[in-house]
């Protein structure tokens, strides 16, 4: 097949562009979390409805859109997929500012989910192909670190903008530049398949959702990976989605303070954690991918007690420190675990596997974690009032213990596919 070679400079430039895409995707999500109490008041919503907007509705449509897009990405032009995805979610972000009720906001959030669903699997598939095997853990972890920058930077940016603009104006300001980024990605990202004819593209192996699920359920290790990716995001996304409201309600911070301090704690935990996970995975997991599962287990089990202190402690500064530690230790699991999963499947299945991973994380984390935290908070409000997020988040932190045990078992039962050794 006429695959276009990618120079080292083009390879790293492509990584930089796709990292910028990852940053923007989470900036757009975090704008909502910082302003959700304002949105709640203006649109007349309850915590349960907020949980649906940030959680279940987003996650369901993210999952529905991810698979057809990922199936195309396994054969087609992944740069185009990423570019169109950025344009769609950026337009939807801007439209969030025009919502006037629960249902109009839900429609905008569905558009955001549908747009973001395509970018991650296509980007991961592309990067795994253009980078050699000894750099894959670092590259995937760099993408996750970029997501961490988006999560933290989104809070800081929204906090700063909140001092000058209303929440409606902030959505518009943040959303529209992404359309320009989409054009840049389409023009400049490297895609080795652009040298192929249509016939050559169509002749590539087509992987279905059924193929991926058969592979996952047929592997003991991948079943344990699925357990990790189900339980851990419940805690992780509950903390991310409700963290800003937690500090505003429980510790009395305003939006600007919350954006700055929570954003900083999130950046320190997520960015340093992902980069360290990538370095450790490449250094010690290259010859023995099972090491990645052990690293994941250690991080998750260590995170649990800090999550409890975060939720139940009285000091806002102790809560910030614990939040940073939790995010740092939790972050050690995802990049290495994705690479461990990729090492157990053929290369042609990786975009669809990535979409499956994103679906599980999205449905469990954004869908169950974010939504369940909202309804638990609403249920506890009768006894705890504005403190109701404390018991809600403490209960959900128990999922870290299950995830840590499952990560250890995924490592012990992993069987490496030959593609992992040859680079595809």
Describe what you observe in this structure.
There is one protein chain. The chain is mainly alpha-helical. The chain has a single domain, classed as Up-down Bundle (Growth Hormone, Chain: A), CATH 1.20.1250. 81% of the residues lie in helices and 0% in strands. It is built from 18 helices and no strands. Helix 1 runs antiparallel to helix 7, helix 3 runs antiparallel to helix 4 and helix 10 packs antiparallel against helix 17. The longest helix has 36 residues. The chain is globular, with a radius of gyration of 20 Å.
SSE blueprint and pairings:
Blueprint: H1 8-43, H2 47-73, H3 78-96, H4 102-130, H5 136-162, H6 167-175, H7 177-188, H8 198-202, H9 209-218, H10 220-249, H11 255-284, H12 291-312, H13 316-331, H14 334-342, H15 350-384, H16 389-396, H17 399-412, H18 418-422
